[in-house]
Amino acid sequence: MGYLRLYGVALFLFLSGCYRDGAFDQEVIIRPGANGYIYEVQIKGHWEGRGGNPHNLFDWKLYKWDSSYWIYTNKVDGKIPSSELILTPQWRCIEFPWNYENLMGYVEFGPGKIIVALDLAEYDNSGIVNGHSPMDANGTYTVRTIKETWKPTTEAEVSNLKQAPCKR
Q1: What residue spans define the domains of the chain?
Q2: Which pLDDT tens digit goes with each residue over 70-86?
Q3: pTM of the prediction?
Q4: According to the model, what pLDDT value does residue 4 have?
Q5: Which residues are paired to 108 by β-bridges?
Q6: What residues have CB less than 8 Å from 60, skipping those under 6 apart?
Q7: Which of 23, 74, 84, 122 has its CB 3.0 to 4.6 Å from that of 131, i.e. a possible disulfide?
Q8: What DSSP letter does each residue of the chain carry, written as one string?
């Protein structure tokens, strides 16, 4: 009887685990850049998830949020190796610790499209790169060009800017 109760609790914890689901937009936005870069490319994603994980068993609230990757580059034509661009999850935070370092791969611009094929570094406990894994936003996107710079429009976007107090 004790094992049945243990299995029941284990099954409950497994089924009530947290999750994240969502996708990136199929269109990227190219805007005027900053901090010495001519262009900034925004890859925006929309996500949702539910609590109820073992750390907070009775939190079943549905959460929704947006996030972006920002690519900074000086050209938007042809194949650009990762060594010639900056990738960051924070708008205009192009320096360590906000940017991704030791990238591999490329971004390729074509007529009305962009191919993102970047690999993020994986580090061991001592901070040494021991491999790379594909970025979750890799893929082919259509391109929309906007002449105005991005400005935060929601409370969540303003809050995110305050959390990463980098030089903008």
Answers
A1: 2-163
A2: 999 999 999 999 999 99
A3: 0.77
A4: 72
A5: 79, 115
A6: 50, 51, 52
A7: 122
A8: -HHHHHHHHHHHHHHT--EEEEEE-SEEEEEE--TT-SEEEEEEEEEEEE---TTSTT---EEEEEEEEEEEES--SEEEEGGG-EEESSTT--STTTS--S-EEEEEEETTEEEEEEEEEEE-TTS-EEEEEE-TT-EEEEEEE-SSPP---SHHHHHHHHHS----
